[in-house]
Amino acid sequence: MSYAESRSEDGPQKPAPLADRAALVRCGERVRARLAADPAAYRLPTDRAEIFAFGEFLDPAECDRMIALVDATARPSMVYDLPRQSETRTSYSGDVDPADPFVRMIERRIDDLLGLESSWGEAIQGQRYHPGQEFKAHCDWFSTLAEYWPQEARRGGQRGWTAMAYLNAVEEGGVTEFTRLGLSITPQRGALLVWNNATPDGAPNWDTMHAAHPVVRGVKYVITKWYRTRRWG
Ligand SMILES: O=C(O)CCC(=O)C(=O)O
Ligand SMILES: [Fe+2]
After folding, report:
1. Beta strands at 172-173 and 215-217: parallel, antiparallel or unpaired
2. Band of residue 9 on the pLDDT scale cut at 50, 70, 90
3. Is the pTM of this model over 0.90?
4. 3-state SS of 205-220?
5. Cβ neighbours for 28, distance < 8 A, ≥ 6 positions apart
6. What is the mean pLDDT of residues 54-74?
7. Phi/psi of residue 173, each to 5°?
8. Residue 58 and residue 107: Cα distance in Å, rounded?
């Protein structure tokens, strides 16, 4: 199972010990070089975080196939911060079958795009949001002060890059906003967003804080894959 860290408020920051710093620097360098050479990568206009978009990363048939897999697995989402679970992330989610050859093909495509080791990637997680459902502002990296951290440290360490694909266009709502950067992304069928959760010097980047705004009309489907600093699981 994979979980996203919950941070529902853009509030005071507790200083947490840094983890996997050298490895996060290396992951940053690796992906940065790879994307710089990729003409399909569009860098979002900010210097405070490395966020890239790719249009038509998945074709419509692939989106439909993935939507069916999300529907087959979706259950209420969980975050580590259990008491706030229902307030923070109200979508349905679940790992799509990692043994499915189609899922493996999409995973390889993402691994390849980023140039990261496939073994560092968590299983792809699917999410489905109905009207009113959202994922409030949070960062994807783990807090090293949290109760869950020792376990995550053993199973792959800190999260470096996030890759997230939109499987459909939403009738209304469901926008992803990087809340500290004033950047909003409207779900576009087949588009992929990738970002570095760390700064170039290997610290968690608070400016990657983001929220999935509530869906107003229609349904929203996304898949997310997080990359650790070493073998996951
Ligand atoms: O659905 C979105 O737009 C964002 C999802 C997200 O932040 C996550 O899965 O960590
Ligand atoms: Fe997230």
Report:
1. antiparallel
2. very low
3. yes
4. CHHHCEEECCEEECCE
5. 50, 160, 196, 198, 199, 200, 202
6. 96
7. 85, -170
8. 12
| Integer Cα distance of 11 and 13 in angstroms | 6
Question: What atom of ligand 1 comes closest to residue 185's alpha carbon?
Answer: 3
Q: How far is the CA of 44 from the centre of ligand 1 (A)?
A: 17
Query: Which CATH code for domain 21-228?
Result: 2.60.120.620
Give the whole-angstrom CA distance, residue 210 versus residue 204: 14
Give the pocket of ligand 1 (CB within 6 Å): 4, 127, 135, 140, 164, 176, 210, 212, 222, 224
Listed in sequence order, the residues at least 6 apart from 154 whose beta carbon sits closer than 8 Å to its beta carbon are: none
Asked whether the beta carbons of 86 and 136 are under 8 A apart, the reply is no
Q: Which atom of ligand 1 is nearest to the CA of 226?
A: 10
